[in-house]
Design goal:
Length: about 475
């Protein structure tokens, strides 16, 4: 068989801007207006044929293969095109490097959205107060080297990846017989959604930037609250009025809020030795506010996601209103009975044999998104030597131990292999028996906290004098 495939992904970009700057005494004003155009064209073609008279053709002379003459060869072509157009403006105001204002607006349109909502408006503004430059701060300048407070609000938009999801696309249908023979048909292959629109994120943030001891200690603290509206999701719909039972639509909303802290400091600084360090910390709290609206609803009221695969064939996560993204959802085990089977906690908090399980006994048994992120970056330099050590970690999250889920159960011996811990005690000194079938339960959801060294870099910088450096350059460039 010979297969030839060609893929082309072409981006056409155009951006035009005009800027204005002016100073009036203590007042600085800058402004910018612009236009942007982004056009993407994706094309793919592929053909396959076989039973060639000679292997020397490779994928050239594709028509020589006998499979084409028998009607067995294949050919596929595809093309997608989308366009994003934006008009934008921004204005900045600075009064004596003490009071700062900034405002911007983007008016953007995408061909990917429905006929009724192709355009969206995305404003943003921020204010800042450089308190350090106030006259009443002079007495603190032997300790304080910078202090700035700021606040802002902004809206951003998300574009779906597929190019034609808002349209009713055409596909091939069946054939029907006419006096001239069989005629192929064309039919609609998807639902249209003229109201498909931008998924928007609205974010408020407040923060402070500071420095001490002539900037040997600097840092910033940011608090934010982000609300995502009109989230895109694939919803089940009724037939009729729709031709098909699923449609991409905007309905859900979600909230994220948290804090980000960054600290930079130089603990040691001498003539020959410098140690600089950076610590970054962030935490985020997530909550799903809605998953439906008046037009599009989830029949079950929740979304099950993730999967164990065979032979268990169970979903591992659930998205539900009031819950968090990343929630593990399953049976919570509290014991093992005398027959070597799991004992679970039912919906009322009582013990129940796993053989009597009911779907409503499932509950949140963990979450896969870290609550806390921490990184620590250190740089050391001594004369010509330099050393950097980057470390980071994540805390307050869980992972599903898939190898343990399958290979730590005695019954899996029938499929070949087991872990050495399969027959060892699991809970309260009790072990599982060969009677316990594979089950996705909380025992296999473990703490995922980690702290690791990302990289260590050691280097040396040679200090070459001008004479040697010039000589080496002349040797390097000589041909």
């Amino acid at each position: 068989m010979r297969l030839k495939k060609t893929v082309e992904n072409r981006d056409n970009l155009l951006e035009i801007t005009s800027q204005y700057k002016e100073r009036f005494g203590l007042h600085d004003v800058t402004g910018l207006v612009g236009y942007s155009y982004q056009n993407n064209i994706y094309e793919r073609s592929a053909m396959a044929n076989w039973d060639f008279p000679s292997d020397q053709y490779t994928y050239n002379n594709m028509e020589a293969g006998a499979a084409l003459k028998r009607g067995e060869a294949s050919q596929v072509t595809n093309k997608q095109e989308n366009t994003l157009i934006g008009f934008f403006a921004r204005a900045n105001y600075n009064c004596d490097n003490r009071y700062l204002l900034s405002a911007s607006i983007r008016h953007e349109g995408s061909s990917k959205f429905g006929e009724n909502h192709k355009w969206g408006n995305f404003p943003a503004f921020s204010v800042g107060w450089n308190m350090y430059n106030e006259s009443f701060m002079e007495s603190t300048r032997n300790l304080l080297s910078s202090l700035k407070f700021r606040a802002g609000f902004g809206i951003t938009g998300t574009v779906p990846i597929p190019a034609y999801v808002s349209l009713s696309q055409l596909g091939t249908g069946g054939n029907f017989l006419t006096a001239d023979g069989w005629v192929p048909t064309i039919k609609s292959s998807s639902n249209s959604n003229p109201d498909l629109r931008w998924e928007k994120k609205e974010e408020w943030n407040v923060g402070v930037d500071f420095g001490f001891l002539d900037e040997r200690i600097t840092g910033n603290i940011d608090l934010y609250q982000r609300k995502t509206k009109d989230m895109l999701w694939d919803y089940q719909v009724a037939k009729p009025p729709y031709l098909y039972d699923n449609i991409l639509a905007n309905a859900g909303s979600m909230e994220n809020k948290g804090i980000e802290i960054s600290l930079n400091f130089i603990p040691v600084q001498t003539k020959d030795f410098i140690w600089s360090s950076t610590v970054n910390y962030s935490t985020n709290k997530n909550k799903l506010l809605t998953l439906s609206n008046e037009q599009f609803q989830l029949k079950a009221g929740f979304i099950d996601a993730g999967h164990t695969g065979g032979p268990i064939q169970q979903t591992t996560h659930r998205l539900m209103v009031g819950g968090k993204v990343g929630d593990f959802y399953g049976f919570k085990v509290i014991d093992i009975d005398d027959s070597g089977r799991w004992v679970i906690e039912d919906k009322d908090g009582n013990a129940k044999p796993i053989l009597e399980q009911q779907p409503d006994d499932k509950k949140v048994i963990g979450n896969g998104l870290p609550k806390h992120f921490l990184s620590w970056i250190n740089s050391f330099s001594y004369k010509g030597f330099n050393l950097s050590v980057n470390m980071r970690g994540a805390f307050g999250f869980d992972v599903l131990n898939m190898p343990l889920l399958f290979y730590d159960n005695p019954i899996f011996l029938a499929r070949g292999n087991l872990l050495s811990t399969a027959y060892k005690p699991k809970i309260n000194g009790k072990s599982l028996s060969n009677l316990q079938e594979l089950q996705y339960v909380s025992y296999y959801v473990e703490k995922g906290d980690y702290w690791k060294i990302d990289n260590i870099t050691l280097g040396y910088t040679f200090n070459l004098n001008d004479k040697i450096l010039k000589k080496s350059q002349s040797i390097f460039y000589r041909k």
